[in-house]
User: Fold these one by one.
Assistant:
Number 1:
Amino acid sequence: MCEASGLGPVDVHFVPSVTCRTGVIRTMSRDTLQVDSGVSDEVYQDRILPHVSRTFALTIPQLPAALRTPVTSAYLLCRIADTIEDEPVLSADATLVLLQRFVAVLYGKEDAVVLAKDLAPQLSQQTLPAERDLALNLARVVRVTARLEEPRRIAIQRCVEVMCSGMHQFQRTASLRGLPRSTDLDDYCYYVAGVVGQMLTELFCDYSVGIAQQRGALNELAVSFAQGLQMTNILKDVWEDRSRGACWLPQEVFTRHGIDLSQLSPGQRDARFDAAMSELVGVAHAHLRNALSFTLLIPGEEAGIRRFCLWAIGLAVLTLRKIEDTPGFTSGAQVKVSRTAVAMTRILTSFAVSNDWMLKRLFDRAANGLALAAPSAMRRPSRPALHTPAPAAEYSHSARHVPLEGSGRRSEGRSAH
């Protein structure tokens, strides 16, 4: 969801020993894991979350209690899809079959335990222990999702279905040449993040009658909100993605500045490249302004949902500023938001959470001087709303035994893990 996709855009400094609402998880890093296998499915979700998501471990507890479980389930399901998609030893065809089976499991058309057993031997050592544990316990997350009320369950199922189909199309053709056009970037951001924004909108509307009254306006902004977060990740992690053989920047933009993306290498300063990056920072900034508008449509009394959104927006704006102020950066670590900035973002947005005027002023101050794209650069193609009734897709498993083939690790794409 925008850390793996959707609404968790930037890395935050994370304390290795984390206290959750279910207790203390004993771990020294995200590379080691000790989760009691005897706990309930819901407790398992809460305990695994900090090991696979820095950002969501901070933001989900801000949500009202009734939303924490469905949002946690949704994020973890998206993360499982990520783990399958990113597994380097799988061929593209084998990956597609596993993703299709995963979606079939969500719709109750295949057994989750069987899929987990089939998946286990196909995960290489490059998969982090926490991600492996989550994938092998996917039946737990599926059971929690199946117990949700129907509107929430359907929104999550359809989100994951669209994501699995769309992201795989892009990963199959990922290369250092980048995406051909800006519209391709829009489509990529939709499949890996925008659909999550739509899903969260459905969950928020189902939770609150007051929020549901703004459903139309929220749906108009949800995809743009998520694209602002995802573009921030893409710009921040451009060199990490390229090291994995992928680039999600649009060649169309760089062509205007005389840059061939296939020829890029870190450490080679070029004012033309910096200008193209600044242009994309401006587009991401414009999307984040839509993200603020989305958040202000949430009634002020829903402070938890607002904080969930505002912390992501604030950190994304600060990350864009770091990117623009650090031309020639060669790694995402060089433009990571500091501990102090993270803390101040949480404090200030929490203080102003119900005051629209103050939140606008805080945003304007954080974004002061940042490049901003003209409205004409904001391509917002119509996307089907997730609440529109549609039959679940039927999946054929005739290709289930596609042989594996060695390959270089595909880009993580949704790069805010």
Note: Confidence is low (pLDDT under 50) at residues 1-5, 9-32, 389-417.
Number 2:
Amino acid sequence: MTKKKEKVLVAMSGGVDSSIAAFLLQKQGYDVTGIFLHFWKDSSSSIKNVENKCCSAKALMDARRVCQKIRIPLYTFNFADIFKKEVVDYFLNKYKQGLTPNPCIPCNKLVKLGLLIKRARKLGFDYVATGHYVKNKKLKIKNKKYFFKLYRGKDRDKDQSYFLYNLTQEQLRHVLFPLGDYTKDEVRKLAKKFKLLVHDKKESQEICFIPEKSHNDFLKRYLKLKSGKIKTLDNKIIGQHNGLPLYTIGQRKGVEIGGTGPYYVARRDYRANILYVVEDKDNPVLYGDKLIAKEVNWISGIEPIFPLKCQAVIRYRHKPAECYLIPQPFLLNRRKGEAKKQTGAYKVKFKKPQRAVTPGQSVVFYGLKCYACGSPATNGAHANECYACGSPATNGAHANYNNEDEILGGGIIK
């Protein structure tokens, strides 16, 4: 009796990555179906015929052409309402609170993967697949059960693991990432080899639901902004800002002070509506050696042993920085002057100060190499011995030897 093919629903964006993801899965013997997702678009923009960059008419046409070429069906889902609620409203609300959010993270967890997995499972699909450059590894444990780990992709320049730290074991059980072992150049060459028209298609780096190049135009349209004073740290007034949500820590672009500068954002005082700046991009005030991470998700679903020594990334493409974590059971509410009990919060202390630690951004935790032999270990978050050399921890009894490419988890910077 022939084994029934496993069914995969591939999120097709009309780009080269999702196209090759579908192609590779088809070659691996899966029963592949394409799905194109429609998201919210900003109809209030002054730009004519405005479209969401992720789901434009051109993107849908390209997705159709690819699906016709590799002979798979293509359907569409309208996710506009949930995208508006979970991504756009989240983005605006966080800026109102004086934070700097990354909208791609809730989008992946709740919409592009979260809701899509639920819909796919109801329709009888075994998996959902995307064109993310990341690895999802399935490890067998006792009682015929499986455990999933998430790793950086082979292409470090395109690695998208930072955006996926919020995924759960249940979600990872039903998602495939076919491009984890490929580089972008290899993907483009494959697309050209098999004559896919999208092989040289350019990709957008901007936020998909913002029509303009600058997200400040979007914020000006939806937030009530109040101008105020720009001061140096010694309280010298040097200019006027256009509304504090338009500025983020360490920023230079947009701090427009005629005749002097350049200046970098050092601090935002929301009570007094003052923007504080410094002239030196490496001014010590722009650096911090600790942060509080809240709403932390551990990929394993299990809290690791503490203190946890690992690497942290505080923004996309930030160089991993060595640090250690300890639980932070109480968080201080500065406005109310009281401490509140909090689960999923941790204090992160860096070995070296990091520039522009920004509240609202995500901090993502990765494993470390063994101090004794330099080998990346693969034996999990609770190991106290290096799998390669057997050496006990040299940096504390609870040191954790993990593969440096493994995502342990992440959270939001308070």
Note: The two ends are 56 Å apart (CA to CA).
Number 3:
Amino acid sequence: MPRKKPLMISALVVTTLIVAAYLVLLSLDFNRYKPRIVQAVKASSGFDVAIHGDIEIGFGLDLRVVIHDIDIRNVPWGSRPEMVRMRRCEVNLALLRLIRGVLEIDQVFFIEPDFLLETNPSGESNFRIAPSKEPSPPSQASRSTDLVFLPVREVQVEKGRFTYRDGRTGETLTQDVNHLVVSASDWRSPIHLELQGSLNDRPVRVEGTFGSPAELMDSGRSWPLDLKARLDGSIASVRGTISDLPKLRGFFLITEAEGPSLSEALSLAGLTTPFEPGPFRFDALINDSEAGLMLNDIRLRVGVPESQGIEISGTIADLLSLKGVNLECQAQFRDLSKLAGPLKTSLPVKGPVALSGRIADSAPKILRFAPLHLSFGKQTFTGSAQIDTTGKLPRLNVKLASSELDLGKVLASVDEDS
């Protein structure tokens, strides 16, 4: 019993100190620290933050800081005033470590955030970490600097929205996120990601790893990534490196995708096809140049070998604006009734059909297929085709010639169909 008494007294003293600290913290008005928080974020990242709501403190196993109604100002050329809008942010600090003088963040929760990542016509990104160069008072300088290197074990996003807008093309891509978890066990460990959301109202699940936070902060090192996404029945993967993440430059990414339906996969990007091409397999290398994102070593295979098949290979110099298209195409169809699509009837064409040629862009939003080689059984044609998507509806213009045209070899008779 005498030995237990000092331990009990020590435990009572520690408990009393914790309760006293808890009561003191509850009595403080943390809203008066808003200017300091805004200044610290500005000094450490260059971002202009506005806190419109209250700051609250809660206790449990962790010390919880809750900040309501937050905005991060966008760049002057941005498409809207705020780069980030957020209903609530919660930060959980490891209380026992904090008592020992170690500041460590266990979890950060972003509730209903709306992130906008965009570029201007010259390709400059609105997301750039640029610490303030203005001198800070000695008492605040260390605090501002330390914020950049605070260890965060886990970040969660609930009911969020991520939007990317390309300033050169005006194209916008929006991703709704039901649940997102990004975690790293320490500063030099890989970052793990798990996402559940929707793209154009279709379910999406993404998981994978990125380089460590230390690699992210080191501007002299490339940032590795390895991601896999499941979209309906399709699977896509991206792996490689980004050498300049803040400027979104220096891409070297190997992409692969496959699925049971190409039309279903294209519908995720808002694209439609007049018929169902069938299952697909896609491989390409993404890198960048002065023109923008490039697709190299493209290889797309579509269809079922027993009935129809399409294979496309080549490069696209500017993927986002669809410029610099240089593709070789080969296609074979044994049964054109598969291409009837919305017509609900078989095409009156005899025999197998083969098509080959080169696809290139002749003008913005205009693709030209030339030279075009087309065969229906033993009947052959040469010529060109052009797809014009500048208007509300795409226009197709086809020119074909044959040295010996025999429609009887091309068109199936009514008697044969019946």
Note: Residues 4-27 form the longest helix (24 residues).
Number 4:
Amino acid sequence: MRSLIINFLIHLRTIVFNFSSWLPEVLSNKNFLTRDVIAGVTIAMIIIPQSMAYATLADVEPVYGLYAALLPVAIAAVFGSSRYLATGPVAMVCLLTSVAAGSLADGNKDVYILYAVMLAFTVGIFQISLSIFKAGKIFDKIPEHVLLGFTSAAALIISFSQLSKIFGLPSVTLDDVANYSNFLNQYPVNHQSLMISLVMLVLMYTVKYKYNKYLTFSNLAVFFAVVVSVTYASSFSYSGPIVGYIPNGLPNFQLPSFSDFNSSIPMLVIHTVIIAFVGFMEAIAIAKQLYIKKPPKDSNGVELFKNPTPVDSNQELFGQGLSNLTSSFSGSIPVSGSFSRSAVNEASGAYSGLSSIITMIIVGLTLLYATPLLHNLPQATLGIIVIFAVIPLVKVKEMRELYVQNRASGVVCVLTFF
């Protein structure tokens, strides 16, 4: 019994002070520090517009996305195991949060954000508990073909959910779809919204894929779309929906209140488990994918640096759990590791979690001083940013190849998709 307690305490010490494996090294090496600063600034230029877009996917105001892109980003990096994983609002978790908070609130918009914040808190507690009791290995056993079908289907659902922003329409319900002629008579398509969506899509595609030999430039495709669309909406008579007023200043940090909770506790538990599992599956998948990549080599074929510390599921659960807790303390929504931002973080030369701390600082400065600049940001731009980010996750070719190579796994993948 004594040995179990000692091992448990050692495990706690390891997961709490994991950052000591890289922080002293980075602070004492000018090259590593420079790389992290460059990567951190690059991710900040991406996460600011993305977090606002994903917040609308969760049916909350864009400012809540910025709150979720503040402390959670740094906390996950400091206490996680991956040196590249970029945490914050992500499309899939925001979609699940929308479903969960909507179900718990039962149509009451006054308590919707309260339930979204509660979910961030309960998801964080659940993930931390799994980490402390070393349950992270559960996620190593989930078949990849199940994840492939699930992520592809979710990406399509997310894309369709953004079409109302593209056309400058209010949120569309199933009844509106059934009576689409009456709906369109009442709310005609805004042609300026549609135009700016298409132009921003072409701009982002061109910058990201046609100029990919200029890595830093191509990674800022989303940032350029925001700058161009805000400039257009501010300079001309743009008639489409815009983001509007965003309160400046840091969030009011406090424990979420459960005193107003009057929904079903079993439903809260079910939604918590779903968001925690799906969110972490996304995070650990990209963390492991980036870890196995080989370090770049110089002209003599010598690796420029050692492989970073291994990715550990339990350590990553602890980091993700703490980041969700801090998101709830910030009055915001559940978060997870991002496929796209993590890949950009690694490609931008990040060496450690310090890059995410740099990102947090820039998001904080934006909240303090720059939110008025985002007032005229078209909602259509946020919608097309989400679609541009998730469409690559619809992997029809990979599903077809899987079916040819292994019919049983392919069938499971297709069934998961539908």
Note: Strands lie at 87-88, 336-337.
